[in-house]
Fold each of these.
Amino acid sequence: MVDLKIRPDNFALISTLSACAQLGELEKGKKVHDFIERNAIKVDSFLSTGLVDLYAKWVKPDGIGISGVLVGSSHEGLGDEARKLFDEMESVNKVPREPKHYGCMADLPGRAGLIKEVTEIIKDIPKGGDMSVWSGLLGGRRIHGDVEIVLEY
């Protein structure tokens, strides 16, 4: 579809992820996930499930897989599950935290209006994070009608 310049919808992406999971085509599934992120496609609960299904079929998680689970958790309001996975990334799964992982974690409380928690996450990020982290803060403030930002460092 991409080669034909046809933009796949969520149904096509879910079907493709499912096929990749069933056929053991993790690398092709990662390309689909990358396509989703690069094109800022809205990740709904069905697409989140497709991503989780793809990555859950593999024994050893990686940064991309964890990112997919964190994004899905954020969009579904599964904060406790995301926090547990994030906390265990390095110690249990041996996967280094990257700015995109912190961005997912900043998005969770931001969506719930817990802006103070987002600022605490930002303070713990090496080098202050990247755009994904700050968009979690700004997005949360926008959702809840509070666009004035005051951070104390």
Note: The first helix runs from residue 10 to 23.
Amino acid sequence: MNAISSYLGSDHTRCDDFFIQAETNVSNGAWEQAEVSLAQFTEALERHFTMEEKVMFPEFEQATGSSAGPTAVMRMEHQQLRSIVALMRDALAARDAESYLGHSETLNTMMQQHNMKEESILYLMADRVLSGRQEEIISAMTSIDAPA
């Protein structure tokens, strides 16, 4: 049986790989490749957020009877992360490596903290409270397309 924690945890790694590639491209002044890499990262991140916000979080909230707990905090953090990604896109469009790298450093720190909370707390809780429904939930998350 697949675990929600494993599925979403490995998706964090997939997003991280795109993030690192974009940051490397900006550092090297490879602007066109950086645009591609940042677009891939943004798409992967939005798909990840969508899987959580449209599938896992609602299922978790229904099972626990609460939408005011950890999922509310994660949704708020998703919005903060989206705001920083927007600043990175602006810096990339301006070909401002210093600004981009400053924002990416902030994003990286926030993502690490966010992912740690999800992986060490929320996802493990989801594995427990959604036990027996994990395959169904993972299947629903897998079918999510990246937002346009």
Note: The helical segments are 4-27, 31-64, 70-93, 97-129, 134-142.
Amino acid sequence: MQQPLAYRMRPTKIDEIVGQQHLVGPGKIIWRMVEAKMLSSMILYGPPGTGKTSIASAIAGSTKYAFRMLNAATDGKKELQQIALEAKMSGTVVLLLDEIHRLDKTKQDFLLPHLESGAIVLIGATTENPYITINPAIRSRAQIFEVKPLAEHDVESAIQRALMDDERGLASFNVNLQPEAMRQLVYATNGDLRSALNGLELAVKSTQPNADGQVVIDLPIIEETVQRKALTADKDGDGHYDVISALQKSIRGSDVDAALHYLARLIEAGDLPTIMRRLSVVAYEDIGVANPAVAARAITAIQAAERLGFPEARIPLANAVVELALSPKSNSAYLAIDAALSDVRNGQTGDVPDHLKDAHYKGAEKLNRGVEYLYPHDYQGDWVAQQYLPDRLANRQYWQAKGNSKVETAYLERYQKLHQSQHDQLKKKK
């Protein structure tokens, strides 16, 4: 029986890994481990299909160590004993332990001495937060790395590689994957490369060649094999981006009905990750300090939607969209940080004032570090005038409040009062 395409295309060396360059790119932590042949146990956590198994396989292939895979939920102590015996007989074994968050105490106690000795290099894989779900005894003996959803260009690159690979891929089928089908395959699988490759293989193997011997894969075929409809079938293939844009602009424009319409289109497409990202951006970019409470409630609703999944996720999402659309709006904080970033990127920085510098080391006082710092909590109202910005930026004001709500107006009034008091008192000191 032939293995699925995603299995066959699994990388055998670290430079074949798609994405995750923050971990496996040249000079990054896992690259360095492989380069120095100084592997340590690790826990990889992130969404399904993002490369956890691929990283483990590539590490083993690059270091020439034996590679074994077990599942913490279904494999028992006996299987672990076999791997420990193999490590004793032939050297280090890289063990990918899937669903490591389900490792029970008996198996954990067996593994620990083998991890300590280095006989087994454990690579735990989980979709759960390891800081919450994994036993501290294992967690303390492993480095924890977050594996992130693949970018669309990463998924597209892997698909192209599979289409051109003669030995492991689909090159022998003479596939013509049409552009709109490629876009949907990449988009609909939300960075899950396993789903994308297996959906592609199903499409190819279930489609008859045309008169020219080509297997033509069009948009309807991909929609069927990944079981997700395109948001629109416009010829430019940009429909999903248009709907995402329209959702944010409708909320920004306070049109509840339009916002709910575009939300419904994204829900129908099953695109929960995009909805969550977009509403998180809206909450802070477009609502911001005009209504911090509704921004916080929106994030809570988004977290509830993530836990629930569809179809129930539509309920907290609808609540969030209605509140965000009807809320007062302000992008003042967003504009303020961009103004501050502009200064930094253009070299407008200056030295941190001496009284704000770190003074928690011997000899700091001799360097005048922190000597004249005034601790605000020692003063009435827990505030005292002192300069915080570097000298060359002493009078810079980044935040330009709009006063579009009672909350933002209250912030504005306090900001103006504090700014004026600080200006007046520092002027007197000079």
Note: The chain has four domains: 5-146, 152-226, 239-326, 339-429.
Amino acid sequence: MDRFVECANIDHFLNILTSQDISDRNRETISKLMIAEEDKLGRNLEYLEFAEKRASKCRDRLNYLRRLRDAFADGTEDRLRAEKVLANFQVTHDLVEEFCCRLRVMVSSSPL
């Protein structure tokens, strides 16, 4: 049951981090909470798979945001907003990818 709660919390934190209107302070706090939940998942391959799926979704979202930004003309208000959203989400994407890397190392170094 604890694993389910940890995974649900991570999904919830990712949803918050992908919102467009989050302050830098709140982003930092939510990121720390997400990392704490991620660390609880431990060395289990099942949770590595969970993290990999979330990372894949983040990569897809990042690519979508890049295409969306590129659809706007340079210098327009829409382009500037899209660039801000993209930059904010890039931070979230990097956190998820970093966690996957840490989890891969933990899984590969754990005894069978």
Note: The mean pLDDT is 85.
